[in-house]
Automatic annotation (TrEMBL):
Residues 1-141 are annotated as: Disordered. GO terms for biological process: defense response to virus; regulation of translation; regulatory ncRNA-mediated gene silencing. SMART domains: DUF1785 (SM01163), PAZ (SM00949). Pfam families: ArgoL1, ArgoN, PAZ, Piwi. Belongs to the argonaute family. Ago subfamily. This is PAZ domain-containing protein. It comes from Davidia involucrata. CDD domains: PAZ_argonaute_like. Residues 644-725 form the Piwi domain. Coiled coil: none annotated. Keywords: Repressor, Ribonucleoprotein, RNA-binding, RNA-mediated gene silencing, Translation regulation.
Length: 725
């Protein structure tokens, strides 16, 4: 319907109210924790009963929405800004007080009566007149200038209230515990062992009528035999199989009629055990056919159009969970995009990932880069048939042609014999090693040697690549994929719902009598009236600006800020001086001053200009000394302390995090960052954005609301805290 708008709860809301959530990039991991000058603020409120299970937020580049429920963050005793914080004064230690004796009162039991008056609620029924229910400031949801129909990424689940789900506990242990190492079984092996049991006795254990969470729980639509079962499992044809004891115990019979009673209001508490079982059923097919990373499921293969370069590809996956909503049970499904290493042969991956890498080149020059790229990754081998996965511990010190090891006789009749690795692979596997002038991969663990030539190793699928390590173009492309247009996002979500490897694939949910409606749920949204802003025109006269109805945004062109703070003492630090995209300083300064003047902000020339590069600073001490010298020079030239330091960089760098931390929390001078490529383009919008950021940091006021918000008409200082929860 053309009159319906798809409103994804992670998308751009504009002036439409109707959900929450959003694809937000996670900030890079801070290498400095417990920074001085910051105090924790805010309180956490637990979501109401009925929040549901499963994902409610996303990993970098991900999103997941909910309907009807949320979590709030309240204000706390902390204040950001210049790094100052309000903290509670410590209470001095007091000597312990002896407990007061209890009064010797023994009431007559027969005289005790049950009061006929109900006990008042702690809040709503309290006699304290100061405690009143909080009224909605929007007239109970009637404040609106229009309504619109919204589609949300929730799909109604029509379960059969007469059906039952049988919950079993499953315990898998080796029949013979391994000696000298941990007996913990990897999750991937647990699923394979369960699969072997169900395939060997398919009549007793129908695979399509069961769901396994990969650990201790099996949920079944039919009764399963209980007890102990022996299962044989081997990682490969040339490896000895091992015996495992699988113990299955009945835990509970989950009646779905309780879930119906909950939605009809006859049951006060949500039956979480039922919702957990149904959620595992919904994830059974994706678990079998996709790669599980966090709470998302991603395809094992990659596509050419998703190639990010450098051996990295974007993977479009799904995140889904069951949610109880005001409209009943719903499957919340969203699509997620993450960067993964391609499942390529190791040598092919290195050629794409490391510039200048060659199989026949000088390996010693790039050894450190190869180590950084491969260490800790998982690989499989193709010189023999096996399902086993190995972790890369490192590289051998010698090249392949010089490696040798001792072969021991299993019966101990023949003394150990030293064999060259090249000869061993030729005689044992019939494989001729082509690249003998490069090291092997060290795949050993528990002090056991296992050197394998790189040409026989293949990266395992589903190995995530940190988005902060992507280059600028790849990061921009990944972000573009994750922030798809609402129409494209809706189509992708619907496609993933009905995919063969999606939650509705196969016949599992049909066997549990849990059909899913293929159309998104609809909700009514309210279009709120946008507030009017108070600012000044180009001549400095105060005016009121309204939203342009056609463009749905405030038109600030030709306007100036409400209160401009003069920028009289500032420094310019250029960290791009040795880069090919280095800053053109004179043009940058003149453009910034011009746009500040147009906005009603007076700006002088910088007191200090310094041209350097990030690589000049090896530690925090050098960076601190550098900033101190800049401040000393500025103090000699100007009257008073520096107001702000503008830093121009070519790309994000951890050194800038340290610089910002030192300058703002230890020295006490604000900073503002700018990219050299953006500065050199001279785009007016970029310079306006930079100018209003500087003005806000110095205490100026760019715009103000023309009218007070409801409940804040009494005046005073107000802080708005936004949180993605």
């Amino acid at each position: 319907d053309e009159h319906q708008q798809y409103h994804h709860q992670g998308g751009r809301r504009g002036q439409v109210e109707g959900g929450r959530g959003g694809p937000t990039g996670q900030p890079p991991a801070q290498q400095w924790v417990n920074r001085p000058g910051y105090a924790p603020g805010g309180t956490y409120s637990r979501p109401p009963t009925g929040q549901g299970v499963g994902p409610s937020r996303t990993e970098a580049g991900e999103s997941s929405g909910t309907v009807g429920y949320g979590r709030g963050v309240g204000g706390g005793a902390a204040r950001g800004g210049s790094g100052k914080a309000w903290v509670t004064a410590p209470v001095p230690d007091q000597p312990p007080r002896a407990p007061e004796p209890l009064p010797d009162v023994t009431p007559d039991v027969e005289s005790l009566k049950i009061s006929e008056q109900p006990r008042p609620s702690p809040l709503l029924g309290s006699t304290d007149k100061n405690l009143l229910p909080l009224k909605r400031p929007d007239k109970g949801g009637r404040n609106a200038i229009g309504k619109t129909n919204l589609l949300v990424n929730h799909f109604p689940v029509k379960f059969n209230p007469e059906a039952t789900i049988i919950h079993y506990d499953v315990d898998i242990k080796p029949k013979v515990p391994p000696k000298g190492r941990s007996g913990k079984i990897p999750k991937s092996d647990l699923r394979m062992i369960r699969g072997n049991l169900f395939s060997d006795a398919s009549t007793q254990f129908p695979l399509s009528k069961t769901a396994y969470d990969g650990e201790k729980n099996i949920f079944s639509a039919v009764e399963l035999p209980t007890g102990q079962f022996t299962v044989e499992y081997s990682h490969g044809e040339d490896m000895k199989s091992r015996s495992y004891i699988v113990t299955i115990k009945l835990v509970n019979v989950l009646k779905l009629c309780k879930l119906k009673d909950y939605f009809s209001g006859n049951l006060l508490s949500m039956p979480r055990d039922i919702l957990q079982g149904m959620d595992v059923v919904m994830k059974e097919i994706p678990f079998r056919h996709r790669v599980s990373v966090g709470r998302g499921f991603y395809p094992k293969e990659w596509y050419e159009e998703d190639d990010l370069g450098g051996g990295i590809a974007a993977s479009r996956g799904i995140q889904h969970s069951l949610k109880p909503t005001s409209q009943g049970l719903a499957l919340c499904l969203d699509y997620s995009v993450l960067a993964f290493r391609k499942p390529l042969p190791v040598l092919d991956f290195l050629e794409e990932h490391i510039r200048g890498f060659s199989r026949s080149g000088d390996f010693r020059r790039l050894r450190r880069d190869v180590m950084n790229a491969l260490e800790g990754l998982k690989v499989t081998v193709n010189h023999r048939i096996t399902k086993q996965k190995f972790s890369i511990a490192g590289l051998t010190e010698q090249n392949t042609q010089h490696l040798s090891f001792d072969v021991e006789d299993p019966e101990g009749k023949i003394p150990p014999k030293k064999v060259r690795l090249v000869d061993y692979f030729r005689e044992k596997y019939g494989k001729e090693i082509m690249y003998k002038d490069i090291p092997c991969l060290d795949l050993g663990k528990n002090n056991r040697k296992n050197d394998v030539p790189m040409e026989f190793c293949i990266l395992v699928e589903g190995q995530r690549y940190p988005k902060e390590n992507l280059d600028r173009d790849a990061a921009r492309e990944l972000k573009g994929m994750s922030m798809a247009l609402p129409k494209d996002r809706k189509n992708r979500i619907c496609e993933m719902l009905q995919a063969k490897d999606g939650p509705c694939g196969g016949d599992t949910i049909q066997n549990f009598d849990m059909p899913v409606v293929k159309n998104m749920a609809t909700v009514a949204g309210r279009v709120l009236e946008p507030p009017k802003l108070k600012l000044r025109d180009s001549k400095g006269k105060m005016i009121v600006s309204s939203v342009d109805k056609d463009k749905c945004q405030w038109n600030l062109a030709g306007k100036s800020v409400l209160e401009g703070k003069p920028v009289e003492r500032w420094a310019l630090l250029d960290f791009s001086s040795s880069d090919r995209c280095k800053l053109i300083p004179n043009n940058f300064i003149q453009n910034l001053k011009k746009h500040c003047k147009n906005l009603g902000i007076h700006m002088d020339d910088p007191l200090v200009r310094r041209f350097t590069k990030m690589s000049d600073f090896k530690d925090v001490t050098e960076l601190h000394q550098f900033l101190e010298h800049v401040i000393e020079e500025a103090n000699e030239k100007g009257k008073g302390r520096l107001q702000i330091i503008v830093c121009v960089i070519t790309k994000t760098d951890p050194v800038f995090d340290y610089l910002k931390w030192i300058s703002e929390t230890q020295i006490g001078i604000l900073t503002q960052c700018c990219l050299s490529t953006t500065a050199n383009k001279g785009n007016p919008a970029d310079f306006v954005n930079l100018a209003i950021k500087i003005n806000a940091k110095l205490g100026g006021s760019n715009v103000e609301l023309n009218e007070w918000l409801p409940r804040f008409k009494s005046g005073g200082h107000v802080m708005f805290v936004g949180a993605d929860v």
